[in-house]
Each structure stands twice: as structure tokens, then as C-alpha cells.
Amino acid sequence: MNQKILPMLFLAGWVLPAVADEPAPELEEVVVLASRATLTVRDIPVNTSILDQEAVREASWKPADEILRQVPGFSLLRSADSIAAAPTTSTVSLRGLGGSAASRTLVLLDGIPVHSPYSSEVFWARIPRHRIARIEVVRGGGATAWGNLSLGGVINIVTRQPQDSGFVFDGMAGYPATADLAVSGDKVSGRWTLGGSASWYDTDGYMNLPREQQGPVDEEVRKDHGTISGRVSYALSDRTRLFANASAFRETRHGGSALDINETEIASLQAGMETETPGGSRWAVRVFHDDTGLEDASVRILGDNESEILRAFEERQDRVWGAGLTWSSPVWNGHELTAGADYRWTDVLLDEYSRYNRGAPLDLLTTDSRQDMGGVFIRDHWRIDTKWQLDGSVRWDYVVNSAESELTALLPGTPIGREVYPSNNQSTINGNLGAVYRANDAFSFRAAAYKGFRAPTLRELYHAASTRGGVILVNNPELESENLVGLEGGLDWQFSAAGTLRLTLFRNTVEDLVQNITRGETGDSPGVIEPCGPLGPNETCRELDNVGEMRATGLEVEAAYEPSDSWSFQLSYLYNDTEITRAPDNPQLVGNRVRQAPEHSATARLRHRGRWFDTSLLARYVGQRYEDDLNRLEVDDFLLFDLRFARQINASTELFLAIENLFDEEYEIKVENNGSIEIGRPRFVGLGLRFRR
Predict the structure, then answer these.
(1) What's the per-residue H, E or C state across 411-457?
(2) Is residue 62 part of a domain?
(3) Per-residue model confidence (pLDDT) at position 87
(4) Could you tell me if residue 204 is inside a domain?
(5) CATH number at residue 93
(6) What angle do CA 373, 113, 262 make, to 5 degrees?
């Protein structure tokens, strides 16, 4: 067994012996909003986790994506954090369903999607972490009610809803030079609730290359961002609430060299109504609009990181309108029906300047792409008796993609050509069926079968890209949707008065998985490799394509143990065996593991609530994985520790000291064909203050 995971197993063996006659930690009984029904964790047939207020508070210095790393199997592409990762690589994966720069897990903020409509990345910094109440994670295709992007599951970030007027200040300063400030306030007056918040973050970042690979061109990866938001709600009655939210977000990222800079601005609006009838029926209506502007430079690093060139510069404008309607009601003999519909319209205008000569672009490629997406679903949850529950749903979705592009020569400024892509239209029917059996107070069993899908993104269909390491990624307008069929079964065991254990076995099969397929490499000399065309030295051509079939078989383990009010321990572990099992057009891939999918990952958390201060120690292990489809670029495993001390000064004030990457481990998150290695964040020390009134 890998030596890096032994400390975690030792810690588990020391902490987990059963102790009777103490209060028992129970599975969360709060309603899981991500289920789109009035269900708790114990009611849902697929594996579901909740990061509660305590887990969120103890990671208070981290953005939402870092908080989610407590969930084994959660990852961003290449395991990068949101400080170093470019926006287009901040895509989400659960259970190893990755392989390309596109999310296969739907991320929601209070039930509203926060993915980019163009490439499905998530701008994590726009999520107000200081207002997070809990995070719900529903794994697998059991999240059928949400449709597209929920192939691997759904993550719903739930924010605090004010009950009283109040003010919150969160501040943190750390080394390497980092400042993080957030303020928010709420005013409750009669039927009205008003609120606002603002946040600012700035960091000098870190060098994301090993010292021996750094060259004159390299700088720290760093970023700064700010958010301002306002919200209002009005209670028409005790059963009906109207609400509206607005926010503005701006972020600047420096990717590690002078030319590698991108800027993003997002303006968002949401509004809706929630109501409950005297008969118990519940209605929820939500509408939303996002307007995103992005400027992104694509650079190529030359030689031994001695110089860089600007390969392309993008100016992108994304506009999305969406709406959702959900109804649920108890009906007869323990049945509860839930039904709903969703619609989202997206328009993306992309100007890409390329073929730079002496700092001036020679070509301009303008692409106008559109996506219409909608679906309807119905779900029935049947509480047969005190022991048995059945759950089933079915959903129909359609996706319509279209685009047209025009290439213009800037010198002398005449059109070169125009292309209208054929419409890419797809529709599908998916669903799930599951059961929960509560044998007694100690044991319950779960089982589910499901089918889900993911439509290709506009970026995958219509936009080529490149990396600073010399990889050219070619789009494919003929991509088909990915389709998942899965099975899982689980056991929930309260093994003592102080502890619980949750085990889940799963097997997922994905047809037509979209992967970056290596088509060739130039080596030391320039060459032509189709479909990429002319390439420079040491460049790699990869093309997006549908792979016939991949399978993921795994085991999830979650344990909680609270021997006293002072001590608690939590352990989560994922074993995930992924394999390409069929690839008629790419037989070289058969038997390979999916990119960026480790076989082993685990987290362990030990808490102590002391007289003078509270202590939390988090260990996170990510196993060995591969960067490429051919399984030639191996990324080493790593084990990291985070330590937090907190002192409650009074009822409203808390001081904390946080140390991330306690032992300053240098760990890999990416390996390039040319031997370049990208490393993760070094040790970070932060001192923070939280004030609530």
C-alpha cells in the first residue's frame, strides 16, 4: 500500500473504536434541495453527502472549490486550485468522470446553475463563501431531475437566509502575501428582508513550476477579484415569498508569465417565488440572467522558459437567460410527486485574434454560437411503510446547438471565408429508479439504477484552443452527447452510539465519452499533423472525439465518530477503477485509465473543541493519475495536511490561524509532453477574524 496513505489509516484506526453511551451522530435530516424533492439524506437511494456549517466554517479561508475537496472524487481538471487554474480548466468532476475541459457535474448556487454557458467552467470566486450555510453533494446519475451536466452528480451550494437583522465581517491576511475581506449585512423589517455584501481578494500567488524548471519568462500565478451583491425578499404571506438578487463580479488572473493574463466580468440577476398551498403543495419559480465578458490571452512558452509568444487573444461575450419551475405535493398512500421544467438560452460572441507578427494579429476569427436547452421531469417518492421507500423519476431533454464563423485578414482587412456549421440537435430520455430499506435503527440499505447524459459544450463543438506547454486542442462540431448507465448499492450503519459508517458500491458505464485524443507530436522539428495543421517544434496535436465506452467501478466509504462533545473524527475514501473498454476509432486507448482519475483518494478530519481554542486537522490524499489519453504522462500522488486553530473571543467574535499544506509539500498537478511540471500551492499561513452581530 502507498506509504502516503498509511498515516490516514493509522489515524482512523486510533480514533474509530466504538464507545457506547454517548450521543450519536446522525445522518443529516435537513431537506436536500439538490434532490428537487422533499427528501433527506436517509431518503435518497444514491450516495449523498452534506458539508455542514461546521465543515464550511473550518475551511473559511478557502474558496468554495477548496472546501469541496473534503469530498473524495471531487476535482477540478488537473486537480489545480482556483488560484492557479485558468477559467476554462475550472471544470468539475465526481467519481472520475473527467477526461476533458468540461464539467460532468452540475454546480448550483441556491438551485441556480453557475456554470459558464460556453464551456461549463465555474468561476468559484463569485460564490460568496462567507454566506455558505451548507453544501449538498448528490453523486451519480441519480440526479436525473436536473438533466444536462448532472452526469456525475449535482453540487448545490446553499446560502444563509437571514432570520434577523445582522452584520458580518470576515477578514484574513496571510503569507505568501494575501488579503481577503468580506462584509455583509441584512435588515429584516416586517415582511421585507434586505441584504447586501461585498468582498475583495488579492494574492501575490506562487511559482507553479519547480525551481529547476523556472526560466526568465516565469512569474507567480496570482489573481485578484471583487464582488458586490444585493438581495431583497418580500413575504406576501406566511406561505409565499418573492425574492430578487443581483451581483457584479470582476476578476484578473495572471497565469505565470507577463503575457498570460485574463480578465472576467460577470453581471447576474435572479428572481423568483416560493409558495405553499394549505393542502401541502409547493411551487417554486426561478428566472435568471448572466452577462459575462472575458478577455483571455493564449501564450506559448519557448525554449527553457526563456521567452514567450502570444499565440491568440480572445474577447468573449456570453449571454444566458434561464428559467425553472418546480411543483411538489403529497398525493395518495405515501406518494409524493415532484414535477418541473427548465429552459436555458445561450448566445456567445467570440472574437479570436491570431497569427501574431511583431505583436500585431494577422487574422480575426469571429464565431457566433447559440444553444437552446430545455427539459421536463416528473418524480415519485413513495414511502410504503416505516421500512421501505421507492423513488423513481423520468426526464426528457433537448439541446439545439448552432454556430457560424467568419475569418478576416486584418491586413488588408478583407474577409477570407465564412462557415455556417450544421445544426447539432439532440434529445434524450433519462431516469432513475431506487429503493431504501431501513431494517432497524442501526442498519439501512440503498440501491439505485439510473441513466444520465451530457451534451457537448459550445466550446467543444466550435472552438479550438492551445496550452502554454504546446498542446493544440481541436474542436469537433460533430460530437455526440455522452450517455451514462449506472448501478449503485449502499449500506448505512450506526455501528455504535457514537459513530456511523456509510458504504457505497457503484458501477458506471459511459457511452460516447468525449476525450482529447492524441493525434501526433512534432518532436524537435516543425511539422504538419492533421487536423491541427502546421505545428512548431515539440508541439502536440489533440482532437476532441467520442470514445466508444468507458467504465468506472468503485467503492465510497464515509465514517463519522464523535466519542464526546470535545472530539470528532470523519473519514472519507474513494476507490475508483476507470477504464476505456471500447474505442472502435481509437483502439490504442482500450485498457487505459481515464485522464485525471486517480484510483485512490481520501480525506480525514480530526477536531478537538478545547477550553481555550478549537483545533482541526485535515488530511487529503490524491493518488497517482495520468495527464493524457495514452497514459504516458504520469502525475504523482500526494498527501497534504491543513491545520486550523480558532479562539472564540466572545459570542460574536472569532480569531483563527490557518496553515494550508502544513509540511510545504511540493506536489504535481500537471505534466506536459515536453517534461514541464506544474506544482500546487506551497505552504500558506493566514490569520483571520470573523465578527457577527
Answers:
(1) CCCEEEEEEECCCEEEEEEEEEEEEEEECCCCEEEEEEEEEEEECCC
(2) yes
(3) 59
(4) no
(5) 2.40.170.20
(6) 100
Q: Is the pLDDT of residue 254 over 50?
A: yes
- Provide CB contacts within 8 A for 203, sequence distance 6+: 83, 176, 177, 178, 179, 222, 223, 224
Secondary structure, 3-state, 523-554: CCCCEEECCCEEECCCCEEEEEEEEEEEEEEE
CB under 8 Å to 208, separation ≥6 — which residues? Answer: 84, 220, 221, 256, 678, 679, 680
Peptide bond into 534 cis (omega under 30): no
What domain count does the chain have?
A: 1
**Range(s) of the domain holding residue 581:** 3-173+365-692
Percent of the chain with pLDDT over 70: 91
More confident residue, 82 or 602: 602
pLDDT score, position 101: 65
Question: Which residues, 6 or more positions from 20, have their beta carbon under 8 angstroms from its beta carbon?
Answer: 496, 497, 498
CB atoms within 10 A of CB 191: 13
Spatial neighbors of 405 by CB under 8 A, at least 6 apart, are: 365, 366, 367, 368, 418, 419, 421, 462
Q: Is residue 114 part of a domain?
A: yes
pLDDT (tens digit per residue) in 460-515: 999 888 877 788 888 999 999 999 999 999 999 998 888 999 999 999 999 998 98
* Spatial contact of 203 and 178, defined as CB atoms under 8 Å apart: yes
Whether residue 303 lies inside any domain: the answer is no
- Beta 166-175 vs 684-692: how paired, if at all? antiparallel
* Number of neighbouring beta carbons within 10 Å of residue 14: 10
Beta bridge partners of 290: 268, 320
Residue 211 is which amino acid?
A: R
Cα torsion through 72, 77, 81, 84, rounded to 10: 170
